[in-house]
Design brief:
heterodimer; A: mainly alpha; B: mainly beta; 5-stranded antiparallel sheet; 13 strands
């Protein structure tokens, strides 16, 4: 579950940085 | 410039650090390398004088990252006129610290039987990137968030034509913690740990078909960021 959460958090970070 | 890449960590091209005309005939050239976790100064000593040189020794001034010789300068036999000797001097990073300008400057004194000579040289701070610099993913996310955006620096790395940037960087202890692709952009989240315990977090953005990469660096000691970006440039282009 933690791993899924971290995967998701990195996806959000990348999305947010690519489209600020 | 020379291609200083062997398998593993980036090593800069060899340069002349001390000219014979300024050192009573002693010419010193060299480079630096990190091999198996050990920092080494690879030095060539050439005798361009007419008499034999002996009794070599080396000392460093205090410097930003505490680099210091970890042993003597091993020139085992006297150096005759027109002879060159190659020496690998292992370095530690636990010597006395004093902030230098530039940060990666090293002031060196070399003595022989004739006199003492001084020179300055600069090293790529990738020498200081340690092998256990892959940050835990959860810690990375928390640290990225925690470091204020004022501490973020952005750099362009132009004309890169690579399809294995991540592998190449890992050879020099720049570790990819996570990779995401967003709208034809690869976003690589990377970590670096310096010998003095400073962590550097980076985002490398590679757009499909665009040879110009964007590097964002976050660090609690933001003065190191420009030196980190120089290392990316050197590693990716060599």
């Amino acid at each position: 579950e933690l791993e899924d959460g971290l995967d998701e958090a990195f996806s959000r970070l990348a999305e947010c940085r690519a489209n600020p | 410039g020379g291609v200083g890449m062997t398998s593993g960590s980036y090593s800069p091209p060899r340069v002349v650090w001390l000219q014979a005309m300024k050192a009573k005939g002693l010419e010193i050239s060299g480079t630096f390398a990190r091999r198996g976790g050990v920092i080494q100064m690879d030095v060539s000593l050439t005798n361009k004088a007419m008499s034999v040189m002996s009794d070599f020794a080396v000392q460093f001034n205090k410097n930003s990252f505490g680099m210091a010789p970890a042993g003597p300068l091993q020139v085992l036999t006297p150096l005759g006129p027109n002879q060159t000797v190659e020496v690998s001097l292992p370095l530690s990073s636990t010597g006395p610290v004093m902030k230098m300008e530039p940060l990666n400057n090293l002031q060196v004194a070399v003595k022989n039987n004739i006199d003492v000579f001084y020179f300055s040289c600069q090293y790529p701070i990738s020498l200081l990137f340690v092998e256990d610099g892959k940050m835990d993913r959860q810690v990375f996310l928390a640290t990225w968030k925690d470091i204020p955006s004022d501490n973020e620096a952005q750099f362009q790395i132009k004309d890169c034509h690579l399809n294995a940037a991540s592998n190449k960087l890992q050879g020099s202890n720049i570790f990819t913690v996570a990779k995401r692709t967003v709208e034809a952009q690869d976003m690589l989240y990377q970590s670096i740990k310096l010998t003095n315990g400073i962590w550097v977090l980076a985002e490398l953005r590679i757009q499909t078909g665009n040879p110009n990469y964007t590097l964002s660096v976050k660090c609690r000691a933001p003065e190191v960021s420009q030196y980190v970006s120089q290392c990316y440039e050197l590693i990716l282009k060599n």
